Amino acid sequence: MWSFQTVNAIENNKYDPTLMLAFNLAKELNTTVDELFKPI
């Protein structure tokens, strides 16, 4: 679970996410990292 500080940092573009975060986020959203960050 993310803390309020983490969410705030993400919203203010002051958070540098890790690759592990990308994998965890994809898992929680039941998708792949490629689909999460697919160019538009």
How does this structure look, described?
There is one protein chain. This protein is an all-alpha fold and 40 residues long. It is 55% helix and 0% strand. The radius of gyration is 11 Å and the shape is globular. It starts with a helix and ends with a helix. The relative contact order is 0.12. The mean pLDDT is 85. Residues 3-36 form the HTH cro/C1-type domain. This is Helix-turn-helix. One of its GO terms (molecular function) is DNA binding. It holds the Pfam family HTH_3.
Can you give me a brief rundown of this structure?
The protein contains three helices and no strands.
Q: How are the secondary structure elements laid out?
A:
Blueprint: H1 4-11, H2 19-28, H3 33-36
Would you count the extended β strands for me? Answer: 0
- Helical segment tally? 3
Question: Oligomeric form of this entry?
Answer: single chain
Tell me the count of domains.
Answer: 1
What does the largest sheet look like? none
What's the SSE pattern? HHH
**Share of helical residues:** 55-70%
Strand content: under 5%
| SS content category | mainly alpha
Let me know the average pLDDT. Answer: 85
Shape descriptor:
globular
Pfam families: HTH_3 (PF01381)
Domain HTH cro/C1-type: 3-36
GO molecular function: DNA binding
Protein name: Helix-turn-helix
Core attributes:
Lambda_DNA-bd_dom_sf; mainly alpha; 3 helices; DNA binding; Helix-turn-helix; Cro/C1-type_HTH
